[in-house]
Structure formats: structure tokens, C-alpha cells
Amino acid sequence: MSEALLSVQNLSTVFELRARSPFAKAPKLKAVSDVSFDLKEGETLGIVGESGCGKSTLGRSILRLIEPTAGRVVWQGRELTDLSAEEMRKARRDLSIIFQDPIASLDPRMTVADIIGEPLRVAEPSLDRKTRRQRVLKAMEEVGLAPEMINRYPHEFSGGQAQRIGIARAIITEPKLIVCDEPVSALDVSIQAQIINLLRGLKERLGLTLIFISHDLSVVRLVSDRILVLYLGRVVEIGPRGDVFARPAHPYTRALLSAAPIPDPDVARSRKRIPLQGDPPSPINPPSGCAFRTRCPIARDVCAKEIPPLIPVEGGTHRSACLFAEEVLRSGDDIASASV
Amino acid sequence: MTLYVDKREALEKRFLVPDTEMPAGKPRSLMRDAMRRLRANKAAVGAIIVLSLIIILAVLGPYFIPYDYETPDWGAFRAPPDFASGHYFGTDQNGRDLLARVLYGTRVSLTVAIIATSVSVTVGVLYGSVAGFVGGRTDQAMMRFVDVMYALPYLLFVILLMVMFGRNVFLLFAAIGLLEWLTMARIVRGQTLSLKEREFVEAARASGVSTLPIILRHIVPNLVGPVVIYATLTIPEIVITESFLSYLGFGVQEPLTSLGTLISEGASVIQVMPWLLFFPGAVLVSLLLSFAFIGDGLRDAFDPKDR
């Protein structure tokens, strides 16, 4: 792989929970364990997984909004995890984030001008008010907001407009990387399409690199070049979009794909579903070995022994953390029929 | 599948439009909204009018009446209210005009209340928001200090402060404000704890804003509701404290007066000169009621869900 813009190496984020009694050991919640990936400039990485699998924690850990417990985040050759608070603040102008709840992510007491201008105020404190206002207007134009909206307050806007404000705030410092944390999950489907198209357009125009977190496979498919599938804080599969969607090499990915709704009822009726039993196990006390084995239709005894490594399948950049990846690939529909 | 792609492209063209649907009317800040709701509340509007009247009279009144608060009128001792002589509220045992004294007393009481309240709001808001936002050990230490302060007997403190500040009433009440901030700090800390988990705070951190500006720009403005409400409820509390301290002889010293002092003097002669109790009492009651109604109105205005 050529020069990576962002390289995440063995990143883990562990939350220490409150101990049940003063004598008991505090239980630990491993939200993200041992995640590694590289991201090239201009690339979009989609992160998918069930709710509670650590998607958002991973996104926030990369930006150090949550301090990662172990591992490294290398950004343009610099290790973000080693930067002092002051250096990190400076680095933030290149890294931004778009949030899930568009209204909640805007300060209700500030006007649009102040909200969008805030990152700029930090990044370029020497700018005078007029220039800053002009930059805000430019960012608003970029995301398709009318300039007259500049003195309005967040609660006056619809969800889609509020998310456009959030995006304008994210792009105003001309960042290189944007973490999109479920940016469309809280919106109507028709608005989702608008926002996704907006993001894709901005990515082209501004040469952005995106990390796109979502539980919605159809959305991820639309924007991502590569897909990373997370289960209980671990990467179970990572690879180019086409490969992961067409030839999933992990039983969990297969199950996820089979559960995604298909807009065409004929196709939907004819395909095979791979229903998963039960809920994901608790990340406080994950199963030994492969975390997915408790719900996996092809689990065997070996799966409980040790955590399966990410191994390349089909010899390419497509990697799966299943001991039987080749079998999953080969057998195709057999798995589905075996479990139904 | 090709058809699907075409359809998608067809749809995308339509969705690439900017979203410029304007919200109607003038920009409405949350403050403006709250004020609009407050104006719709009859009791609160009435209270604001009464309060403004009292304030205007207390400030300007003394310039328009022929008597001042300390010079005796040798021709009218213990005079009941009388329009002919110009002693509208009567006079006291020393022949001083009661109207003038009530106006001065109101001035003193209000000044004292406002000093103490602004001290308590400033200290309480800063202390509480820092404790809540920083959290962890700092929070623990700061709030334990508040607990200790709470546990100390109030009157003992006031007497100690009297010794320290002597007869300067305004310094004394600034000091009382320094005691009153405890509850404010607790309220603010609680609000801050919930505010700091909101996404807009995280957004500010993601933009690289450091802790102090986040507290001042994002946390404190969002505390306006509870703080304003609590402050309007603190003012009457301090007016009452002042009355109580004056009653005990700790407050304002003669010939200067306050509503509390006037009431305590009036109470002792209620059987012979009831007007000495009635007039200052009526002003105090209207003041307290106005503040209570305004506080209630503000609470409903800032937090319409809680009504």
C-alpha cells in the first residue's frame, strides 16, 4: 500500500466500569480491541456493525475525543496519541467530525454564524470578523444553505438543514479527514439521499478522506471505497467494497448482508436469510476465542481456543478474521441453508 | 441492476438541490422565545409592573417629597397618615417622615439583595460549572468543600463577618452573597453534568476549543434558564435575611434604615402606631410576591415542558 494518510495500529479503547463492591475488581468494557487499518488520501472507509459494537468509540478514539487505551494513531507520519494537549488542538484543524444527531450537535444558544465559525476561530485566531464571516458564508454556500440563514438559531431548522450546518462546521477549516459518525441515521430517507450526495460531492471537490460510520449497509455501500466490519470491538472483515459485498468472507458479514432490506420485493423474497440467534454477547465478558462463535452457524470447537487473526482471503487486500474464511467463500449458500 | 443504477442517478439529480427553505419570521433565539412566553403570563407581567413601580419610586421618590429620612419634623411626632400635612404615611416616634423612610429602606433592601445575589450568582456559576465540567477528583474536592460550608451554622458566620467588616452593611451583604452561592453551585454543577455530555460540547472539543472557553461559551450560556430562575428566588430570600438580621440588630444602623428595620421597629408599637408596621410591611410583601411571580413566570418561560 502506498503512503497512508492515516494509519491506525492495534488501537484499543477500554472503559473501566464502577466496581460492584470496594473489594471487587472494576469490570472492564473493551469497546474497541486491537483495530488496525490504513487509509489513503481521498479514500472512504465505511465502518459497519450492530449497535454497541464500538463503531462510534472507534471513530472518537481516532480523533482522541475518547482517549484510546492502547495502540497508535499515525496521522501524516505523526503519532496523534503522543501529542500534547496543545499540539493536539492544533492538529484538529485537519481532522473533523460530523455527528449523528444534527440538532443536538449544535449549541442552541449560538447563531449559525457562531457555530460554523467556531473551528475557524480556534484554527486561525488572527482572522478579523469580516473575513471569518465571509468564510462562514462560503462554507454555507458549499453545503447548500441560503446566506440569509446566518443569523438564525439551530432550533429553527429542520434536521436536514441542521446536518448541513454540522457539515459546514466540519469543512470550514479545510480539513483532510472527516469522521462521519452515522451522519444520516437520524434523518428521513429522502433527506438522507440529499446529505449523502452532498457528502460525496464535497469529498470530490475538496479532496476529503472520510471515515463513514453507519449501521445502514445501503448507505455505506453508496459512499465507501473500502468496508470494515466490526463485531464486539474487533475487526472481523475488511476489504474493498465490491469484494465485501459480493463475496463476504466472514459468517457475520454474510448475516449482516442477508439482513439488509432490499428495495425490490421480488429479489427480497427469493434470497436466503441467515438469521442470527440472540443478542451480541456482552463486551464486558466476551466469549473466548472468536467473539462471534456463540452466534455463528458454522462455529466449531477450535473457534473457542484463540482469537482468529485477520488473514488475507483470495490473496488480496480483502481480509477476514474467520478460521474458515475460504470455506465461507466457497460454500456460498450452504451456510444459509444449514442454519435455517 | 442497470435499471436500478439509472433510477438512482435520476433520483440523485433531484436530490442534489440546496436546502434553502427558510424558517418563517425573524430569527428567534431561545431568549427571545422565553421572553415571548413570559409576556404571555399575566401574573408575571403584573409582578414586573409592580416591581418596576416600586423600584422607580424608591430611586426617584425621595427627590419629590419635602422630607428626608433622618430630620425630625418638630411639629409632627407620632402623627398618623395625613394628607394635609404632607406626611402621607405618617411619622414615627422621632417625628421622621415614614414615607421617606420606607423609600430609603426599600432602596437599601433592594441594593443589598442585588449585591448579594450577583455575588452569589457569579461565584456559584463559575464554581459549579468548573466542578461539573472538569469532574473527577477536582469535582469531588470542590463539592466536599461546599458540603463543609453548608454544615457551618449560618448565624455564627454572619456574626464573625460582622466582626470582620464592622458596620459596612454593603460589605456585609457581599459576604452574605459569598454564603448564598452554595445552593447555586450545586444547581449549576448538576446542569453542567448533563450539558457536558451533549454533542455540541463534543463538537467544540473536536474543533480544538480548550476547556475554559468551552465552559464560558457553551456551558454558561446554556445555564441561563436555571440560573435566572434561581437568582430571582434568591433575591427575596436575601431581603428576608436582611430583615431578620436587622431585627436582631446586625443589619443597617440608624439613622439609615431598611425594610426589615422599619418592620421590627413598627412591630413593637403595633398597638399605638399601626401605620409604622403596615406601610413597610405592605411594601415588603409586594416586593416578595413580585419576585416570586417573576421567578415562577421565568421558570415556565425557560422550560415550558415543566409546567
Automatic annotation (TrEMBL), chain A:
Domain of life: Bacteria
Gene3D superfamilies: P-loop containing nucleotide triphosphate hydrolases (3.40.50.300)
Record-annotated ABC transporter domain positions: 17-257
Keyword terms of this UniProt record: ATP-binding, Nucleotide-binding, Transport
GO biological process, one term: peptide transport
InterPro entries assigned: AAA+_ATPase, ABC_transp_ATP-bind, ABC_transporter-like_ATP-bd, ABC_transporter-like_CS, Oligopep_ABC_C, P-loop_NTPase
Recorded GO CC terms: plasma membrane
Topology in the lipid bilayer: Peripheral membrane protein
Subcellular location field: Cell inner membrane
Pfam family, one: oligo_HPY
GO molecular function: ATP binding; ATP hydrolysis activity
PANTHER family referenced in this protein's UniProt entry, alphabetically: D,D-DIPEPTIDE TRANSPORT ATP-BINDING PROTEIN DDPF-RELATED (PTHR43776:SF7), TRANSPORT ATP-BINDING PROTEIN (PTHR43776)
Family: Belongs to the ABC transporter superfamily.
Record-given protein name: Oligopeptide transport system ATP-binding protein
Record organism: Consotaella salsifontis
From TrEMBL, chain B:
GO cellular component, one term: plasma membrane
Membrane topology according to the record: Multi-pass membrane protein
Domain ABC transmembrane type-1: 106-295
Coiled-coil boundaries: none
Residue ranges of the TM segments: 43-65, 108-133, 145-163, 169-188, 227-252, 272-295
Predominant subcellular localization, coarse grouping: membrane
Stated name of the protein: Oligopeptide transport system permease protein OppC
Record organism: Consotaella salsifontis
Phylogenetic classification of the source organism: Bacteria, Pseudomonadati, Pseudomonadota, Alphaproteobacteria, Hyphomicrobiales
